[in-house]
Amino acid sequence: MIFVNSLCLISLTLEGLNCQFFNLDSLRFLTSITNLTKLIEPMALSIVRGNDPMIKDKLRRLIRSIFRKYVVPDRNESSNPFLDLKEKAKIKEVKTILTGIIRECQPLSQNSLQELNEIEKNNYQVLPKRLSLIDNQIIKTLQDQYDLQHDAFYNLKQVEMEETEETKQITMSVYSPQIFQLIRKKDNAMINIEKSLNLIDNYESIMNIIGPDGGKSGEFFFFSYDNKLILKTITQQEVQSFLGRLGQFTYHYLSEQLTLLSKIYGIYSFNDGQKEQFIILQRNISQAPKQYILRTYDLKGSEYEREVKIQNNEELSKKTLKDINFMNLEKQVKISYDSNLEIVRALTLDCQLLQKLKLMDYSLLIQKVDWDSYCFESQTKIQDIMDQFQSNYYIIQSSEEFGIYYHIAIIDYLQEWTAKKVIERQGKQLLYTNQDPSALEPFEYGERFKKKLIEQIFQR
């Protein structure tokens, strides 16, 4: 910008001197240079101003609104010729799910849960109690500490959602709403459900969820537009598995200063009379845009079928890698000594809880994120990124790679030791006698998880 202004000033000065004193034809080209710089000046100014973060954000919003208004003229997709009826129904279904969850996750106006305990009692049912899995002393402690009603752990709230332009008629069930309100409240510095799931900002995410099969598979996996939250379908068995252990999980979530279990913020079901979907709400552990996630590892502590084949020049950031890949590419998580101590302590306590609750087949998810590049390109301070997380151990700086940060969590921890898993283990042992199968009974699974993962990949 300075160069353009200087060139324009010099050209004008020489042009004036030529007209006044020299009157040389050879210097007439200065008029063209002056006109050219006048033409370039507003373009250069636009580029300079375009680098301002506030202007960038306004431009993105303007482009997004123009796209929605003119490229996709009907926001309700009713007149879009490229969408068939099933695709339109899927989009409306997604909007219904988001709208319902936003309504049921509204923050309370008081510090206690007394307000939630008193409203809409007629909409509540009491779920059957799975007494063999309930720790009554823990539940009594939580009820006294947080002023919970007697059946807070077994409540099922049903909400009839009406047909609108954005939503379909459906019955929404909210499991143990008071308890999940407590869990969300502890993490309210990291999550804002109304902001993350609003329909306007999630327009592209909603359209993208259709996928190549047009949404016919029935599976639901949704990232919010800001990458902070995940919604995904689970089985009814997994719902029962978690609710039967809700007291222990809630106590662990709330009492431990640091837990690396990927917290569940809500369990819902949606029934339109033809099918019923069970959906959980969770926090996305890295909250990073996909292009800045360099590696994603899903580790179980087993080597049996735990390698993703990598072709030459294949982009690793687009794959979810496994145990053998991790040992070949990383070997260890490279973080500071103090961070190692805290992570090992938290993972050990989490693993002991899952052993106690007789759960298995969970994974250690490790993501490496290039937050330095993100900060440079978005003109954001790294401290602002770290402040989005409730603990410094949810975003840990690499001790060897500048600008790279680790995000670590235990995921998919709702699998019980069932007859199907017993048969799977025995079958694999017969076929592969020298291999360590991924399916082990819960205590053995936890011991292997601690030995092969917690004790080996974190530096001592």
Give a short synopsis of this structure.
The protein is α+β, with helices and mostly antiparallel strands and 460 residues long. It has 17 helices and 14 strands.
Structure, explained:
With 460 residues, the protein is α+β, with helices and mostly antiparallel strands. Helices cover 45% and strands 16% of the residues. It has helices at 2-22, 29-50, 53-71, 85-104, 114-118, 136-146, 177-186, 193-196, 203-208, 236-243, 246-255, 323-329, 337-356, 371-378, 382-386, 419-431, 442-457; strands spanning 124-126, 155-161, 170-175, 221-223, 229-234, 264-271, 276-283, 293-299, 320-321, 359-360, 363-370, 396-397, 404-411, 415-416. The strands form three sheets. The protein has a seven-stranded antiparallel beta sheet with strand order 1-2-3-6-7-5-4. Residues 69-79, 118-122 and 211-217 have low confidence and may be disordered.
List descriptors:
460 residues; alpha+beta; 16% strand; globular
Please give the structural blueprint.
Blueprint: H1 2-22, H2 29-50, H3 53-71, H4 85-104, H5 114-118, E1 124-126, H6 136-146, E2 155-161, E3 170-175, H7 177-186, H8 193-196, H9 203-208, E4 221-223, E5 229-234, H10 236-243, H11 246-255, E6 264-271, E7 276-283, E8 293-299, E9 320-321, H12 323-329, H13 337-356, E10 359-360, E11 363-370, H14 371-378, H15 382-386, E12 396-397, E13 404-411, E14 415-416, H16 419-431, H17 442-457
Parallel strand pairs: 8-9
Antiparallel strand pairs: 1-2, 2-3, 3-6, 4-5, 5-7, 6-7, 8-11, 10-14, 11-13, 12-13
**Which strand order do you get reading across the main beta sheet?**
1-2-3-6-7-5-4
**Percentage of residues in DSSP E strands:** 15-25%
Unreliable residue runs: 69-79, 118-122, 211-217
What structural class do the secondary elements suggest? Answer: alpha+beta
Distance between the termini: 54 Å
Radius of gyration: 28 Å
Main beta-sheet annotation:
7 strands, antiparallel
What is the number of strand segments?
A: 14
Helix count? Answer: 17
Shape: globular
The pLDDT mean sits at 81
Helix percentage range: 40-55%
- What's the assembly state of these chains? single chain
